[in-house]
């Protein structure tokens, strides 16, 4: 069942009913100011940090769900309705929600009154713009009342949700004309505030939620709207809101528009204070003036469209498969940008009050955006590296506002250091900008301990070298990629009562997965060293890589697949000797991507085991058999019911690892089969089962052991986006940036006769045609660049050249 459809020309997903299985959302904003908006106008906004600079409130566990947002009530006599259907839920005569690139539009009608609500965040300003356009399609004059509504958060979202004894006394607003200023906590010299304004005179307002809703009413039937008159309430403590009342008179066929601006202002720290609680409004007034007319809003929308057109033009494909083209050209890259901006911090599944930005997460997100915004990728790498400790380990998470590590979570996730090499390597291959390696970066944000970025990479690799276990495999620490595999949580001997480890470093649990990472990203680090003039170090690194490769081939091989890990007692996890959790997806993907066992035939056997034991119609599950009881020596992974999350759920993040691995092994048919199973555009027809948005990836899908097999959760903010784009663009379509140029190395189904790619790379446009009339899965037989046949499938980088015409012919060529 479908609840909408794609419009590829406009780069939109058009939702045709408000009754979607879950709220289907979009993200507005591209730099500092971000908003989440659902297909019924729910959601919230914040400046940079969803915890520390939350502007509007949201209630995650509320019922009915998604019941707080930016609402516009239209009162037409006794009929009250909303353009986005909620919260009144009056049945509409027509409805559609168009989610586009950085904007969302609601188009609805009731009683021959048409409403269009356009919502977006301008490219360069910290505000959310709502343009409400009403048209009278009757033959008589219409008298309407419009009531806006937004509920302010008291800035720190975590404190706002629990510190009521204080917060109920701090709400403070100021009303000037048609503008409502939310200045709670401004008197504490935090020099930031929010405002909510409309570009026309109002006949009333409310800033108290109790006054607007009434003591015993909610947003579905607010007292102010039912009465048709605002109370002009001024909030003092309790729950501050912003609501405007406008009266509209429309002649037959007439239309009119109203521009609402919900903005954030932060005055410079050196501004002089007039008095406690008195806000300086000059910046806010300039923002209001900038978006006060339809022409100004049209210009801002045009700028937004150009922004996304320019970004998305940097990589595009044209093939025989419109769903492939749709995801590669539009939605996958769009989601990569959203995920890069927010990491895992704020979605409809992440409250924004806890984890902030992840070290590992942010490094992986770089893989999907480095070709889009290399300059921002550069800064992100430096920010991430600054949360690293001198020994090469790092904070696992950091706050986006302060860019400082989250001490509550701390460190000890032993895969983190290698991800910094992965992200930096991706940047270097994309840009050729080796100057970043000489940038001075602090350790633990202590500038007195700054070292070049290259030294940070050196210590990342060194940390992994120095932390090996009894089998010569990397110690797992608190966890590796799988945060729920906590093999050092319990340190006593078998048969005794388990005690929590006080010192994770004393744990001996090892990770075969990190061993695969060590080989893959250690090899990349060796290449970086060699290109930086450190040939001796590169040779030493490669020696360490080969030692690890041998350890994985020895202790990490189970006979038909790679072992997942060894626990604190050196008992294998993810082995045929286990009753449950015999095979895991992670090492099969990462080890084969690293090239381990390719020549020996182990890679093919591991991938065959994945297909036989882990594959399902909705994707590859994380492990099998699922854990049916809680295992103290494994930690959180077995706390989930079978088929959910890490306990045998379909973790979409590492499905592309298998697709990449199949491509490395030359299996184009299988690589694309794996790609399609979790790709949103290919599962749109089963949206009633999948439930989450059919235009973006979700973190996980319930596995075959779950009662809700096929149901997705945690959409939008997931490493799936970046990894899938890396998979489809570099491994399947095979356009691979390297330190010395661009390599063309596709791995595609035999039935695919070819495709074209336009790729912007290091200041030049590459127009690439791939010819597969031979019907092979992999192997470039001939590469012609600007009429010259290359000796191999690498297009060497030529400084100053701005365009390349490339033709790659797959299969044997005479």
Features:
814 residues; alpha+beta; Beta-galactosidase, Chain A, domain 5; Maltose phosphorylase, domain 3; 10-stranded antiparallel beta sheet; 6-stranded antiparallel beta sheet; 42 strands; 26% strand
What is the compact description of this entry?
The chain has 814 residues and is an alpha+beta fold. Among the domains are: 4-309, Glycoside hydrolase, family 65, N-terminal domain (Beta-galactosidase, Chain A, domain 5), CATH 2.70.98; 733-810, Maltose phosphorylase, domain 3.
What does this protein structure show overall?
Helices cover 27% and strands 26% of the residues. By secondary structure, the protein is an alpha+beta fold. A ten-stranded antiparallel sheet has the order 1-2-9-10-11-12-19-16-15-14, with helices on one face. Strands 6, 7, 8, 13, 17 and 18 form a six-stranded antiparallel sheet that branches. The protein has a six-stranded mixed sheet with strand order 20-37-38-42-39-40. It is globular, with a radius of gyration of 28 Å. The model is unreliable at 491-505 (pLDDT under 50).
């Amino acid at each position: 069942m479908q609840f909408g459809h794609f419009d590829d020309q406009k780069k939109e997903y058009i939702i045709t009913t408000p009754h979607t299985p879950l709220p289907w959302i979009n993200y507005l904003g591209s730099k500092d100011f971000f908003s989440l908006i659902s297909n019924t106008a729910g959601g919230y906004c914040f400046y940079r940090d969803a915890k520390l600079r939350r502007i509007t409130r949201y209630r995650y566990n509320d019922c009915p769900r998604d019941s707080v947002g930016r609402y516009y009530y239209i009162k037409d006599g006794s009929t009250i309705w909303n353009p986005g259907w909620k919260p009144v839920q009056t049945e509409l005569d027509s409805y559609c929600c168009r989610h586009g690139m950085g904007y969302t539009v609601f188009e609805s009608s009731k009683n021959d009154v048409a409403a269009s609500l356009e919502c977006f965040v301008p490219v360069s300003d910290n505000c959310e713009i709502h343009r409400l356009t009403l048209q009278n399609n009757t033959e008589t004059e219409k008298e309407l009342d419009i009531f806006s509504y937004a509920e302010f958060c008291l800035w720190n979202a975590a404190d706002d949700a629990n510190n009521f004894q204080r917060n109920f006394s701090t709400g403070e607003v100021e009303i000037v004309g048609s503008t409502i200023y939310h200045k709670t906590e401004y008197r504490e010299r935090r020099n930031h505030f929010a405002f909510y304004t409309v570009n026309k005179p109002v006949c009333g307002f409310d800033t108290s939620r109790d006054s607007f809703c009434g003591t015993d009413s909610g947003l579905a039937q607010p007292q102010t709207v039912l009465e048709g008159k605002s109370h002009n309430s001024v909030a003092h403590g309790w729950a501050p809101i912003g609501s405007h009342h406008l009266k509209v008179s429309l002649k037959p066929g007439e239309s009119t528009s109203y521009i609402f601006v919900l903005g954030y202002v932060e005055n410079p720290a050196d501004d002089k204070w007039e008095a406690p609680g008195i806000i300086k409004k000059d910046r806010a007034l300039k923002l209001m003036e900038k978006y006060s007319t339809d022409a100004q809003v049209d210009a801002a929308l045009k700028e937004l469209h150009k922004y996304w057109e320019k970004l998305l033009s940097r990589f595009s494909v044209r093939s025989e498969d419109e769903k492939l083209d749709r995801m590669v050209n539009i939605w996958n890259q769009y989601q990569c940008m959203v995920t890069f901006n927010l990491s895992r911090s704020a979605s409809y599944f992440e409250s924004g009050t806890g984890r902030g930005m992840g070290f590992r997460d942010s490094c992986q997100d770089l893989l999907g955006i480095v070709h889009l915004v290399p300059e921002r990728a550069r800064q992100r790498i430096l920010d991430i590296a600054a949360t690293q400790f001198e020994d090469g380990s790092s904070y696992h998470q950091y706050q986006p506002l302060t860019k400082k590590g989250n001490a509550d979570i701390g460190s000890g996730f032993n895969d983190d250091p290698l991800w910094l090499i992965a992200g930096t390597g991706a940047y270097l291959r994309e840009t050729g900008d080796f100057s970043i390696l000489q940038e001075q970066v602090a350790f633990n944000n202590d500038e007195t301990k700054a070292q070049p970025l290259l030294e940070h990479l050196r210590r990342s690799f060194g940390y992994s070298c120095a932390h090996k276990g009894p089998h010569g495999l990397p110690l797992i620490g608190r966890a590796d990629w799988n945060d729920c595999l906590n093999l050092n949580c319990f340190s006593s001997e078998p048969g005794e009562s388990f005690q929590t480890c006080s010192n994770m470093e004393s744990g001996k649990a090892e990770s075969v997965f990190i061993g695969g990472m060590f080989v893959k990203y250690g090899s990349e680090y060796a290449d970086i060293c060699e290109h930086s003039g450190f040939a001796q170090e590169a040779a030493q690194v490669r020696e360490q890589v080969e030692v690890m490769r041998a350890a994985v081939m020895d202790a990490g091989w189970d006979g038909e697949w790679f072992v997942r890990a060894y626990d604190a007692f050196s008992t294998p996890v993810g082995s045929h000797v286990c009753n449950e959790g015999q095979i895991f997806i992670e090492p099969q993907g990462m080890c084969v991507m690293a090239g381990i066992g390719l020549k020996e035939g182990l890679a093919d056997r591991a991938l065959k085991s994945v297909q036989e034991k882990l594959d399902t119609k909705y994707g590859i599950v994380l492990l099998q058999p699922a854990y049916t009881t809680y295992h103290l020596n494994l930690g959180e992974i077995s706390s989930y019911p079978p088929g959910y999350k890490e306990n045998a759920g379909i973790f979409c993040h590492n499905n592309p690892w298998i697709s990449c691995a199949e491509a490395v092994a030359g299996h184009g048919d299988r690589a694309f089969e794996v790609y399609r199973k979790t790709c949103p555009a290919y599962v749109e027809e089963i949206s009633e089962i999948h439930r989450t948005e059919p235009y973006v990836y979700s973190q996980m899908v319930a596995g075959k052991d779950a009662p809700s097999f096929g149901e997705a959760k945690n959409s939008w903010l997931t490493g799936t986006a970046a990894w899938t784009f890396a998979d489809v663009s570099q491994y399947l379509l095979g356009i691979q940036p390297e330190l010395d140029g661009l390599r063309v190395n596709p791995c595609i189904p035999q039935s695919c006769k070819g495709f074209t790619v336009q790729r912007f790379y290091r200041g030049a446009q590459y127009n690439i045609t791939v010819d597969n009339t031979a019907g092979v899965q992999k192997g470039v037989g001939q590469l012609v660049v600007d009429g010259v046949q290359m000796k191999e499938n690498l297009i060497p980088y030529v400084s100053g050249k701005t365009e390349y015409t490339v033709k790659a012919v797959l299969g044997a060529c005479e």
